[in-house]
Specification:
Distance between the termini: 66 Å
Structural class: alpha/beta
Bound molecules: nicotinamide-adenine-dinucleotide, zinc ion
Helix content: 40-55%
Shape: elongated
Length: 692
């Protein structure tokens, strides 16, 4: 049975996408929209009034029909008669399920009551920076009158829920001239008789607030510039960010490992360069969406950008200890003093503390480091704090920034409904939060390895000689939140450092290094030139030494352990003719595994190797002459070389790039936590290369 989208829902989706795609209108995944309309009830054949409302989760900018909850309006509104009062308003969320029309669609969110109860065919609830600036200004109520007259009504702070819906509905009824309201400490809600009218009212509130702020704001809302806190020049601040990024990720990952995102936008740098930023940052954020994403407040470094890296790192470590104590204090104070939340009439304890590490770390002159369970979450946390800065600028420009009080922040952060959402999240993949760097990963074994690590949840940086090919391989594996490509010649020390810095800037740090870059010249002793020897050794022995060295600096700074995996070779053990330079440098790599396993173990870093053999498919080494050469040596056709190698093995199986990738995952995945200094042969069985 094909079903056409109801015109009211279609208009709603188009309006939501327009509103949600402009960050001035709402933050990522913030706000929700609705429409009311009529459809024929398939049970009775009679018309039935429905409410389409953006469901829990999801983003307005990319909303589709599946992101809408569809409720029967009569049943939803009938809930007013059984509403047990504000103390038990959370129970109404479960009751929404009994109002659903048909199946499918998204779960109704906490804001469903506001949309259903407000008597208007179209309703928008948004989190615009300009509107929240008014909503969090100490004189917010007076400013609302001053800016909007009687067209927009002030609603004092109340936690989102059924009661807020009732409040807004009665305010609309009492103010028939109003087109919307400012929700204290929170955001805006607007309505209209048509979809276009609701959209126009939303935009009018947002733009009018922004224009008023632009016209009436005092000149330096964040105060005069702070001596020594100006932004460093771009190249310098990015180098500084890379130098301290690993330490900060370690600080943010004490309770659980985090992926990072770095933002050095003007908004962030200007805030940090002004005298009032410490006071404002300490006041914390306000809009309900923010608490789980950014925590109540950030960790702010209190040193100028001219401080040395050593002093900066030392101070950050001290501040991290203080931050954790402060957060624990906030939890203890509020979890005890407010006692408990009520669920289903019975009293339940607050959810356990979710960790005391900062999610936002601000470094004057350099920028903002934000953290999350994956790259997207880390990036959005940074976007949210940027929203918070914009809000504070607007509020301070007109009045004084006055976010909701601590107890209310806590009630939002540890809300039973939010906790339930977190409990419903799928279990993370085995390599979630791990940041991998694979060299020579534009093709062959390296690309297969990067693909496998990404499939297991890792963020991956693909490094290779050609930027274009590295980026193409990254794009094949996933978007920029999963994989990025960088150019690096591993035999060049400066290029290797730049590659590791790029990894820290892209994902916050580094956990898992795969020394895979290589090439092979198959030549006899007499044919091998000194230049051949140098090339083989520069890329493989020296290259992996340089990569391991630069990476180990990050691993040690982070204090989160880590893995280094060398793709060496059967030829590091096996001796055959025409392979002097290649096999000698492979043996060098193999011994680096043992040497570094012994040296880096005290930092929790495991170092292991994989010994492949005969990987013909997908291998650039074989395609670029080595395959033809080997085929000629063995007297077979080049296309049959893989099968030929297979016949030489004990298992008689052809070895594919994926088989090597599997071994890398096994070494650095959740199972082999107690193994270091090992080489795994992945050669389908070659007795002459058995390890002993
Ligand atoms: N294919 C096999 O049978 C086999 C067997 C044993 C070991 N290995 C090893 O596996 C690794 C990957 O080989 P492959 O078969 O996938 O070959 P491949 O040629 O497909 O991949 C090697 C990659 O390394 C890159 N590279 C070369 N020099 C570099 C440099 N200086 N800096 C950065 N990147 C550089 C190349 O551009 C290429 O993308 C190599 O170390 C190789 O020695 C391969
Ligand atoms: Zn909201």
């Amino acid at each position: 049975m094909s079903k056409t989208v109801n015109p009211a829902a279609a208009e709603l989706i188009a309006r939501s996408n327009r509103l949600g795609s402009d960050p001035r209108n709402t933050n990522y995944a913030g706000g929700n929209t609705s429409a009311k309309g009529t459809e024929t009830d398939p049970v009775t054949g009679e018309p039935v009034e429905l409410l389409w409302v953006k469901g829990s989760g999801g983003d307005l900018g990319t909303l589709t029909e599946s992101g809408l909850a569809v409720l029967r309006l009569d049943r939803m509104r009938a809930l007013v008669d059984v509403y047990p009062g504000v103390d038990r308003e959370d129970e109404m969320v479960a009751a929404f399920d009994y109002c659903l029309h048909g199946k499918g669609g998204a779960a109704p969110s906490i804001d469903t009551a506001m949309h259903g109860l407000v008597d208007a065919p179209h309703v928008d609830h948004l989190h615009p920076d300009s509107g929240i600036a008014i909503a969090t200004a100490a004189e917010g109520e007076a400013l609302t009158k001053e800016i909007f007259g009687d067209r927009v009504v002030w609603v004092p702070w109340r936690r989102p829920g059924f009661q807020l819906g009732l409040d807004i509905a009665s305010i609309k009824e009492a103010n028939p001239q109003a087109v919307g309201c400012i929700l204290g400490g929170h955001g805006i809600t607007a309505w209209g008789d048509t979809s276009d009218e609701a959209e126009a009212h939303s935009l009018w509130i947002i733009e009018t607030a922004a224009a008023y702020i632009a016209e009436h704001s005092k000149p330096e809302p964040f105060g005069p510039p702070l001596e020594g806190y100006a932004a460093l020049p771009e190249a310098e601040r990015r180098a500084r960010a890379a130098a301290i990024g690993a330490t900060i990720r370690g600080i943010a990952s004490q309770d659980r490992p985090m992926v990072g995102h770095f933002t050095d936008s003007d908004v962030v740098l200007d805030f940090l360069a002004s005298s009032e930023h410490p006071r404002l940052a300490a006041l914390g954020t306000s809009c309900p969406d923010h608490f789980l994403r950014t925590k109540v407040k950030p960790l702010v470094l209190d040193l100028p950008a001219s401080a040395s890296v050593e002093d900066t790192v030392a101070r950050l470590q001290e501040l991290a200890v203080a931050y954790r104590e402060d957060y624990q204090g906030y939890y203890d104070r509020n979890a005890v003093s407010t006692g408990s939340t009520t669920e289903g009439g019975s009293t339940t304890a607050w959810p356990a503390i979710r960790g005391a590490d900062p999610l936002i770390v601000l470094v004057p002159g350099v920028g903002m480091f934000s953290y999350g369970k994956d790259k997207q979450t880390a990036r959005v946390a940074g976007e949210f704090y940027t929203n918070a800065i914009n809000v504070m600028r607007g509020a301070e420009g007109l009045s004084t920034y006055a976010p909701i009080d601590e107890a209310e922040k806590f009630r939002i952060e540890y809300w039973a409904l939010e906790e339930a959402k977190l409990q419903r999240m799928p279990a993370p993949k085995p390599l979630a939060t791990r940041i991998a760097l694979v060299t020579g990963a534009a093709g062959g074994i390296g690309k297969a390895t990067a693909r496998r690590l990404a499939a297991e949840g890792a963020c991956v940086v693909i490094a290779d000689l050609s930027l274009e090919k590295a980026q193409a391989a990254a794009a094949e594996i996933g978007g920029p939140d999963v994989a990025v490509g960088v150019a690096a010649d591993v035999s060049d020390e400066a290029a290797v450092q730049a590659m590791v810095d790029a990894t820290v800037l892209a994902f916050g740090g580094l956990d898992l290094v795969v020394n895979n870059a290589g090439l092979s010249l198959s030549k006899s002793l007499m044919d091998t030139t000194a230049a051949d020897w140098d090339l083989q050794h520069n890329v493989m022995a020296k290259g992996s030494f340089l990569v391991s060295k630069a990476a180990a600096r990050v691993l040690i700074d982070q204090q989160m352990g880590g893995d280094i995996v060398y793709i060496s070779s059967k030829n590091s053990i096996f001796a055959g003719p025409n392979n002097i330079a290649y096999s000698a440098t492979k043996a060098d790599q193999a011994h680096q595994v043992r040497l570094l396993a012994a040296e880096l173990g005290e930092h929790g870093v495991k170092v292991n190797g994989v010994n492949p053999d005969g990987v013909v498919q997908g291998s650039g080494i074989f395609a670029s002459g080595w395959g033809a050469n080997r085929a000629a040596v063995y007297g077979v056709e080049e296309k049959d070389l893989g099968k030929f190698y297979a016949q030489r093995t004990i298992l008689k199986r052809e070895v594919l790039p994926e088989n090597i990738a599997n071994a890398v995952f096994a070494l650095c995945g959740p199972d082999m936590t107690h193994t270091t200094g090992l080489h795994i042969p992945v050669d389908a069985g070659v007795a002459a290369a058995f390890l002993r």
